[in-house]
């Protein structure tokens, strides 16, 4: 009986504890439901507000296009009507003059005078199209908004999943032991490298294996490049901020002190002044040069001196339709390698080195590394000698990515990096 009473007492205690925990669990369930409901309502409200902002922006942009179209169309149609009326009037006067008989001198003189007056009438004023440049930039502006939204959505989704920027695991960031001041962002803030990693850790040898995997690139900032429309030569058409193509007809870009005027070149918006940077470029068509240039380079330089690699303030890798050629200071070095659609560019400030790679299937072939390297005795290499003397001074400047579209219809597209290469980069 005592054991039975004890057992019943234990059961009673267990029931009371379960009742308490059930009550607590119910409160937790209600709390979760309430918090989720409130969060859902807030999110829906924010999405509605964001939709209103986008709808308002869309309305403004479409109205801007319609106003520009109406203004330019009215002016163009008025000019067309004037020209058609003038042509009809001149044709009628000419016909009247031709119909006059040779014996009717007075009538002939009258018709001749009428034709002369018609010919001397004031011409219509030239078309101004003052809003044309802004009107045709709408696509670029909306494309930039789309890119920003897409990137922000991706980064915030990764954040919600417990990952860092662009998918880098937050725990890996913590283990890196770097403070927020020690992180270097590209100017668009996609990926970062710790400060200690940028100070030259893990150097790339000039004897880099010919088919090295991307994971051998140490502690690299994946550099996100946006093309700067204020630097584009008038014969370069930009597609958003990532694509560029050389065209035959000049584009009426607005005046800009940073615009190239003698060379079909365009720069990236982004500045580089320390650490390691890596970016990729797709060669779609034609002759293209890819490299870097000093921020303060004069874009009004003459063609022979203003081209990438033809001066001491820039260097590049050129594809000339047959092979690759590295250029610096007017000296060149031909490279015997097959064509790669994707070119990787790796810039190391601490090492004062710039390396170009051919990228295919997440593997990289070293095409050329520009870096000071003492020559072997008795070996004469004008290109390397130029590198040894003048190349280090280039790193005393802030540098920008630079692109030269040498042939008509030459076309390039800035990365993104290959997905598997990016995955390897994140794991490091």
Summary?
This protein has helices at 2-99, 105-119, 132-135, 138-160, 170-175, 195-198, 303-306, 382-390, 419-427; strands at residues 183-185, 192-194, 212-213, 221-222, 236-239, 243-246, 265-267, 276-285, 288-294, 314-319, 324-328, 331-335, 342-348, 353-360, 363-370, 399-405, 411-414.
SSE topology sketch:
Blueprint: H1 2-99, H2 105-119, H3 132-135, H4 138-160, H5 170-175, E1 183-185, E2 192-194, H6 195-198, E3 212-213, E4 221-222, E5 236-239, E6 243-246, E7 265-267, E8 276-285, E9 288-294, H7 303-306, E10 314-319, E11 324-328, E12 331-335, E13 342-348, E14 353-360, E15 363-370, H8 382-390, E16 399-405, E17 411-414, H9 419-427
Parallel strand pairs: 4-8
Antiparallel strand pairs: 1-2, 3-15, 5-6, 6-17, 7-16, 8-13, 8-17, 9-10, 9-16, 10-11, 11-12, 13-14, 14-15
């Amino acid at each position: 009986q005592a054991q039975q009473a004890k057992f019943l007492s234990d059961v009673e205690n267990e029931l009371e504890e379960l009742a308490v925990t059930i009550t607590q669990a119910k409160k937790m369930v209600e709390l979760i439901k309430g918090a989720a409901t409130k969060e859902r309502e807030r999110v829906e409200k924010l999405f509605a507000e964001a939709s209103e902002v986008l709808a308002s922006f869309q309305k403004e942009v479409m109205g801007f296009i319609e106003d520009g179209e109406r203004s330019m169309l009215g002016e163009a149609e008025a000019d067309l009507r004037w020209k058609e009326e003038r042509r009809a009037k001149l044709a009628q006067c000419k016909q009247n003059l031709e119909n006059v008989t040779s014996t009717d001198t007075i009538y002939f003189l009258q018709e001749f005078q009428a034709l002369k007056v018609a010919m001397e009438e004031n011409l219509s004023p030239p078309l101004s199209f003052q809003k044309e440049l802004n009107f045709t930039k709408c696509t670029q502006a909306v494309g930039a908004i789309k890119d920003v939204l897409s990137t922000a959505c991706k980064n915030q989704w990764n954040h919600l999943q417990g990952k860092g920027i662009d998918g880098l695991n937050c725990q890996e960031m913590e283990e890196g032991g770097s403070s927020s001041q020690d992180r270097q962002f590209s100017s668009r803030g996609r990926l970062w490298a710790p400060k200690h990693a940028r100070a030259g850790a893990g150097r790339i040898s000039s004897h880099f294996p010919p088919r090295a995997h991307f994971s051998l690139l140490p502690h690299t900032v994946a550099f996100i490049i946006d093309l700067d429309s204020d630097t584009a030569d008038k014969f370069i058409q930009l597609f958003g901020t990532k694509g560029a193509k050389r065209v035959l007809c000049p584009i009426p870009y607005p005046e800009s002190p940073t615009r190239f005027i003698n060379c079909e070149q365009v720069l990236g918006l982004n500045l580089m002044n320390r650490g390691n940077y890596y970016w990729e470029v797709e060669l779609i068509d034609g002759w293209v040069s890819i490299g870097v240039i000093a921020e303060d380079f004069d874009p009004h330089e003459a063609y022979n001196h203003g081209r990438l690699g033809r001066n001491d303030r820039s260097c590049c890798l050129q594809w000339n339709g047959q092979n690759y050629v590295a250029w610096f200071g007017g000296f060149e070095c031909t490279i015997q390698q097959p064509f790669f659609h994707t070119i990787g560019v790796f810039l190391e400030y601490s090492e004062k080195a710039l390396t170009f790679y051919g990228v295919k299937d997440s593997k990289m072939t070293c095409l050329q590394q520009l870096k000071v390297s003492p020559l072997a005795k008795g070996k004469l290499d004008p290109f390397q000698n130029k590198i040894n003397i003048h190349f280090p001074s280039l790193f005393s400047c802030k540098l920008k990515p630079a692109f030269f579209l040498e042939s008509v219809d030459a076309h390039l597209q800035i990365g993104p990096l290959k997905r598997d290469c990016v995955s390897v980069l994140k794991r490091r």
